[in-house]
Amino acid sequence: MMSGLRHRTFMLMLMLLLASSTTVAQATEGVVVIGHPTVKRLDASTVARIYTGRVIEVEGVAITAINANAGTAIRNRFLQLFLNQDEDKYTAYWTVRRYIGKGASPREMGKSSDIIQFVTSTPGAIGYIDANELRPGMNVLLR
Amino acid sequence: MKGHLAAMALFDRFRSPLSGAPVDLLRRKVAQTQAVTVPISNKPPARGSIERPQPWLCQAPREGARKLGSGPAFPHERPQPWLCQAPQGGARKLGSGPAFPHQGLLVKIVATLVVFWPVTLFAADYSLSGFGTLGFAKSDKPYKYQRFVDDTGTFRRDSVAGVQLDAWLTPSIGATVQALASPSSNNDAQFDGTFAWAFASWRPTNDWLIRVGKQRLPIYLYSQTYNVGTTYEFARLPTEMYSISPSNDYVGLSASKTWEVRTGELSLDGYWGSSGLDVRFWIRDGLQPNQMPSTLFRRLGIEGGGLVLTHKGVDTTYRLGLSRVTVNEKNSANAYPVTYPFVSIAPGIGYFQVDANLPGPGIPTIDRYGYRTLTLGADIALDSSYRVITEVARSLVKQTNFSNQSNRGYVALLKKVDKWTPYVVYAYLRSASGPLNLYDKVNSNVVPPIVLGAAQINASQRVGADAILVYDQHSWSIGTSYSISPTSKIKAEWMRVRIGQVSSLVDAPAGSNIRNQSIDVISLSYNVVF
User: Fold this and answer.
1) Which of A56, A98, A107 comes nearest B172 by C-beta?
2) β-strands A57-58, B173-183: how paired?
3) Among A77, A94, B123, B530, which residue's beta carbon has the most beta carbons within 10 A?
4) How far apart are the first and last CA of chain A?
5) Highest mean pLDDT: which of B82-86, B245-249, B380-384?
6) Alpha carbons A100 and B224: distance in angstroms, whole number
7) Sign of dihedral through CA atoms A65, A68, A74, A75?
């Protein structure tokens, strides 16, 4: 009886764990943070702090972050996955930050090809693209 | 007659401490009445006395105006409250601005472009942004509240526009300038252009930010974004809290250190600098019949600094601020009054010496006074939709009753429902007992007609009372904001203000006291950033 209960509990926990792993995999799937070769791998927390202006240099390298244009699907996914915010909240955050004199939101680019071009050619630059657009030789910082 | 004799005795005893001459209205009148020859001193006025340029209220009436009434022949014949006696480098009478009302604004915009255009050429990166609010407010009273709001409605109270340029020479070195167009701080009839921000910044590490130049004070939750309506849900930040600060910006140095903590981010901001502040007085009666009721602005100098500790969590913000500044007369060697001494004429009869030319012991003065403020603020998300915002402040001034030392605060409950954020706010503001009591005594003291010159003494006392900034009011507001987009909001609000003993935010009609009255204010605004 007790053995059966323990078994069911174990199975339930295993299912929950698998489900959560699948969720994480799905969440990070599709958005890849890329950077110039001068930038080393980043964790999600650091990426979030960069895109909220709280980090401007990592290990001595000045960071220039690039955003996709507001309203694009890739940007919405990025904000949700890495910052746990929607566009309204993110815009409101940067509006306050700008007008308390603490900087402006990252520069925006419309095409992923522009983001790739800028990131690969600008020391310290980072950006994010859809995983499908990842090409060999790109410096992946977080996926 | 007994009163006259007592007054004569006083006149012989005291001399005007400012002019040094025993010339005053009371003496002249009494002397004329009793046919006594009174020697009028030919001694030139002392420095800082009546020969200085004076605001309209204190200037000699024009010939045309004097014909209308029986006013004194010389401007210094009438008692003048201290308010009228300082050099008025910063004071400006209504309509005395530039010929083209927005000339100053245009000059500043052009100056901004001239100064910052080269910066953008050398900058590695720059960003131009702007904001604006078109706000309409209307009350149910014929007299004005908060400078502009009455029953005719106004766009002046809440409308504002600004542009901001951020430029970076490197990722860690930058400059920011924000030009602002808003109602003038020293003229009710004009819009004016100012720089709310104009500073250079250096961020040596992720955790440090050092700035030099003109900046906004961080002491309240919204004091730095006061003019950017999209950064808060209220139609107007609670006046009781946000309109009484001794200054909202300064030119100086600030340093900010940030720590990442388990619960979020902790930051400590320190600042030091100086600023000028235009203080507005409403002289409800003027000095009839020559001077009409109107506003008077006085320029004060402020120097000091403070510390602000802020904790930001995911959906919460807590803030503690301490500031210590000294306040003095800007561009003036004039001293600051401490109080109005009471001069007894006879048992139960007397007056407050609101002017140095009135007989009395003299108005005690100080060169400057200290102004300390403690602020506490919290913005707490109760759950995904409810939010509480509250701030309280206590300011303390020991040396003088002529300051806006007060207790103030507000608490607001907001609920987010999709794009709507309805809210209710309770706010209060009450001056310290010293200024309130002095105002009450001066304002209510009446010299009986049996004393010669009583009418003008009484009028002067009311002007003297108007020179004491005092507040006793609270308000309830119910409103909502509607987010049209992430960068624009529409807001609507109904507010009921209850005036208790008095409020210097009210322009009381001539001859009246606004007390124990309610004012209803309806506000609508469109707010945008771009």
Assistant:
1) A56
2) unpaired
3) A94
4) 44
5) B380-384
6) 5
7) positive
Strands B420-431 vs B406-415: parallel, antiparallel or unpaired: antiparallel
Q: How far is CA B195 from CA A98, B111, B128, in A?
A: 15, 11, 15
Of B218, B231, B265, the CB nearest to A99: B231
pLDDT given at position B105 = 58
Pairing of the two strands A64-68 and A107-109: parallel
More confident residue, B459 or B101: B459
Distance CA B275, CA B250 (A): 5
Give the DSSP H/E element, type plus range, for residue B105: helix B103-122
Read off the pLDDT band of B26 (50, 70, 90): very low
Q: Where are the beta strands (DSSP E) in B313-353?
A: 316-329, 336-337, 342-346, 349-352
Write the pLDDT tens digit of every residue in A7-30. Answer: 565 555 545 444 444 444 444 558
pLDDT band at B103 (very low <50, low <70, confident <90, very high): low
A vs B, Cβ pairs < 8 A, gives 65
| Nearest-by-CA chain B residue for A70 | B486
Contacts of residue A10, defined as CB under 8 A and 6 or more positions apart, other chains included, come to none
Q: Would the CB atoms of A101 and B215 count as touching at under 8 Å?
A: yes
* Residue A2 contacts B, CB cutoff 8 Å: no
Choose the mutation target among B125, B128, B129 for the interface with A, i.e. most A CBs under 10 Å. B129
Token pair listed for B218? 């961080």
Q: Over range B60-88, report the average pLDDT.
A: 37
Q: Break chain A down into helix, strand, coil percent, rounded to 5.
A: 50, 20, 30
pLDDT, tens digit, 9 for 90 and up, residues B433-491? 999 999 999 999 999 999 888 988 898 899 999 999 999 999 999 999 999 999 999 99
Chain A contact for B164 (CB, 8 A cutoff): yes
Give the tokens for residue A92: 């409101």
What global pTM score does this model have? 0.80
* CA A11 vs CA A4, A19, B26, B459: distances in Å: 10, 12, 100, 89
Nearest CA in chain A to B213: A101
Radius of gyration for the alpha carbons in chain A, expressed in angstroms and rounded: 19
Query: pLDDT tens-digit profile of A44-65?
Result: 999 999 999 999 999 999 999 9
